[in-house]
Design brief:
lyase, elongated, NAD(P)HX epimerase activity, 19 strands, Rossmann fold, 7-stranded parallel β-sheet, 505 residues, alpha/beta, UDP-N-acetylmuramoyl-L-alanine:D-glutamate ligase, 16% strand, Ribokinase-like, binds adenosine-5'-diphosphate, binds potassium ion, binds ligand NPW, metal-binding
C-alpha cells in the first residue's frame, strides 16, 4: 500500500482521468460508494447521519455518500458550509444528483443552530476538507469543527480529518476534526504517520476507488505490510548449517554498561543468527556470558572501562553492529571510525556509535558495503543538525535527504518507523506499541536487524522485516501476556518465538 503527498495523489488522479480515461465523476462516485459501503457495515438503519460538506471534491464525495446512504434506507441530511456558487464541477454534478434523488440539503448561515442539528444526528460524516486543505481552518469551518469535536456523536472523516494537512506541513489548527474513524481514499497521506497529526485520524481504513495499479509506479513510498513480510522473509532450508544463517559480530558495551550489548546479542540469536560473537571489554564479559550461553566472545582492549582503538579482523563476519552501551568517550570514537573504514560487510551503527559519527558523516559515503544507521528522533536531530521537533514534523523528508546524501540505509525509529534506502525509497512499519517506548527496545531491534541483514539478499527487506518482527512481537506480548506498561525488551525478545511460530505455520 502506497503512501502519498497531496501533489502525488493529484497526479495519480490526473493520470487515471487523462491517460486511462476514467471520468472524475466516476472516481467520485466510486469514492463515495466505497465509503458508504463501509458505513453500512458500521451503522444500524436507525442511526441518523449528518454529512458536513465544503466547497471541494471532498464535499463531492460527501454528496455521493449522502445519496447512497439515503438509498440504502438511512435518514440523511447534508449541511453545506459554503455558498452555492462555490460548488463546481464533479461536486456540483453529485450535489444535483443528491437533490434530484430527494435529498435534504441545509445551508450554513450566521444564525444556523448546530445544537438543534446535533439533536437529530447520531453520526457526523466530515466531508468538509480533504487533500486540498491549506493552512488554518477558516470560518465557518473552524466553528463547525469545534462544535463537532465537542459533540459526543460518532465522527467519520472522508479521506482526511478536516483541518489537518496531507503533508509534512505546519499551520493546522487544533480545532481540526478528531475523527473516530477515517476512510482514506486509495492511499494514506504523509500526515497519517506524523506524531502531530496521527491521532486526528482515529482508526483508519483505506478504500479503493478504481485507480489502476500501474498509475502508482512513480511512488517510491509504501507501508511494509503483512503481505510484504510473507513475500520476502527467507525460509530455512532443511539442509542449512550454522554458516548459512550468518556469522555476526556485536561491538559494544563497557565496564559500566554491559546490559545493552547483552540485549542486542540475545535478540540477534533469538532472531536466528547462525553464530554470534560479542566484542567488548574484558570486564563486561562475565555478566554477559552469564545470560548468554550461546554467544562467543572477543575480549577487546579497553581503557578506563571503554573499548579502545585496536587491530580487528572483521573478515570472518557477514555483518557487524557497533554502538550500544559503548559510551561516548574519545577511545570509543576511534574504534567506531576504524570499524566504519574496515568493515567490508554490511555495518549497522546504533546508539553511541551514531554519536561518534556525527562529525565524520562523510566517511560513510566512502564505504563500499551497505551501512545502516538506526537513530531515534533525538539521534536523527543530532545527525542532521535539526531540532527534534523538526525531525518529528518532517521525518519522511529529513530521512530521505539524509539517506541519499550519505548513501546509507536509515531506520528512523518511532511509533511509525521509517526505513529509507540510499536511493530514497521509503517504507513505513506499522507494528509496535507504546510498550516499546523504554530503554532497551532499540538495543533489541539492533540485534534483530543484524540477523536479518545476514539472511536477506536485499538490505531493505532485511531492515523492514526486522522492524516488523520486533514490533509484532511487542504487539503479541501486550495482547497476550503483558501490558504496554510492564513490557521489557527481554519480553520482546522472548515474544519472537511466537511470531516465528505463527509465520512458519
Ligand atoms: N479526482 C479527484 O481529484 C478526486 C478527489 N477526491 C476527493 O477530493 C478531495 C480533494 O478535493 P479538492 O482538491 O477539491 O480539495 P478539498 O480538500 O475538497 O477542498 C478544497 C477547498 O477547500 C477550501 N479550503 C482549503 N483550505 C481551507 C481552510 N483552511 N479553511 C477553509 N476552507 C479551505 C478551498 O478554498 P479556497 O482556498 O480555494 O478558497 C477549496 O475550495 C480528496 O481529498 C478526496 O476526498 C475523490 O473524490 C476521488 C477523486
Ligand atoms: N510508541 C511507540 N510505538 C511503537 N514503537 C515504539 C514506540 N516507542 C518506541 N518504539 C520503538 O521502540 C524502539 C526504541 O528504540 P530507542 O529509542 O533506540 O530505544 P533504546 O533507548 O532502547 O535504545 C524503536 O524500535 C521504536 O520504533
Ligand atoms: K474530510
Amino acid at each position: 500500500m502506497h503512501i502519498v503527498t497531496a501533489k502525488e495523489m493529484y497526479e495519480i488522479d490526473r493520470i487515471t482521468m487523462e491517460e486511462y480515461g476514467l471520468d472524475g465523476r466516476i472516481l467520485m462516485e466510486n469514492a463515495g460508494r466505497a465509503i458508504a459501503k463501509q458505513l453500512e457495515g458500521l451503522l444500524s438503519l436507525n442511526q441518523r447521519i449528518t454529512i458536513l460538506v465544503g466547497s471541494g471534491n471532498n464535499g463531492g464525495d460527501g454528496f455521493v455518500i449522502g445519496r447512497t446512504m439515503m438509498n440504502a434506507g438511512y435518514s440523511v441530511r447534508i449541511l453545506q458550509l459554503v455558498e452555492d456558487n462555490r460548488i463546481r464541477g464533479d461536486a456540483q454534478y453529485h450535489k444535483q444528483l443528491f437533490l434530484s434523488f430527494g435529498g435534504t440539503l441545509l445551508h450554513w448561515n450566521e444564525s444556523f443552530d448546530l445544537k438543534e442539528l446535533e439533536e437529530e444526528t447520531d453520526v457526523w460524516v466530515d466531508a468538509m476538507l480533504g487533500i486540498g486543505a491549506k493552512g488554518a481552518l477558516r470560518s465557518p469551518f473552524s466553528e463547525v469543527c469545534t462544535f463537532v469535536n465537542r459533540s459526543e456523536r460518532l465522527t467519520v472523516s472522508v479521506d482526511i480529518p478536516s483541518g489537518i494537512p496531507a503533508d509534512e506541513e505546519s499551520g493546522y489548527t487544533e480545532e481540526a476534526i478528531h475523527a473516530d474513524i477515517t476512510y482514506i481514499i486509495e492511499a494514506p497521506k504523509l500526515s497519517t504517520f506524523l506524531e502531530r497529526y496521527a491521532s486526528y485520524y482515529g482508526r483508519w481504513e483505506v478504500v479503493r476507488i478504481g485507480i489502476p495499479n500501474s498509475a502508482w509506479s512513480f511512488i517510491k513510498r509504501a507501508i511494509w505490510s503483512d503481505q510484504s513480510v510473507q513475500q520476502t522473509l527467507p525460509t530455512r532450508s532443511r539442509f542449512s548449517h550454522k554458516g548459512s544463517h550468518g556469522r555476526g559480530f556485536v561491538i559494544g558495551g563497557s565496564q559500566s554498561m554491559p546490559g545493552s550489548v547483552a540485549l542486542t546479542s540475545s535478540a540477534a540469536l533469538r532472531a536466528g543468527a547462525g553464530l554470534l560473537t560479542i566484542g567488548t571489554v574484558p570486564e563486561a564479559i562475565p555478566s554477559i556470558a552469564a545470560q548468554l550461553t550461546e554467544a562467543t566472545f572477543h575480549a577487546m582492549k579497553g581503557q578506563n572501562g571503554w573499548i579502545q582503538a585496536q587491530e580487528l579482523d572483521l573478515s570472518p563476519y557477514d555483518s557487524v553492529v557497533i554502538g550500544m552501551g559503548m559510551g561516548r568517550a574519545e577511545e570509543t570514537a576511534s574504534i567506531t571510525r576504524q570499524v566504519v573504514k574496515s568493515a567490508h560487510c554490511p555495518l549497522l551503527i546504533d546508539a553511541d556509535g551514531l554519536y561518534h559519527i556525527q562529525h565524520h558523516k562523510s566517511s560513510l559515503r566512502e564505504r563500499s558495503h551497505p551501512t545502516v544507521l538506526t537513530p531515534h528522533p533525538g539521534e536523527m536531530a543530532m545527525l542532521s543538525n535539526q531540532t527534534i521537533s523538526s525531525v518529528l514534523d518532517h521525518p519522511i523528508s529529513i530521512s530521505k535527504t539524509f539517506a541519499m546524501e550519505y548513501g546509507v540505509y536509515l531506520v528512523l525509529k518511532g511509533p511509525f518507523t521509517i526505513i529509507t534506502t540510499p536511493d530514497g525509497e521509503q517504507w513505513v512499519n506499522l507494528t509496535g506499541n507504546a510498550g516499546l517506548a523504554k530503554g532497551g527496545s532499540g538495543d533489541a531491534l539492533a540485534g534483530v536487524l543484524l540477523t536479518m541483514m545476514m539472511q536477506h539478499e536485499t538490505i531493505q527487506h532485511a531492515l523492514s522485516n526486522g522492524c516488523y518482527l520486533h514490533g509484532k512481537s511487542a504487539d503479541y506480548m501486550v495482547e497476550h501476556q503483558h501490558s504496554d506498561r510492564d513490557l521489557l525488551a527481554t519480553d520482546v525478545i522472548h515474544g519472537l518465538i511466537q511470531i516465528f511460530r505463527t509465520l512458519s505455520s
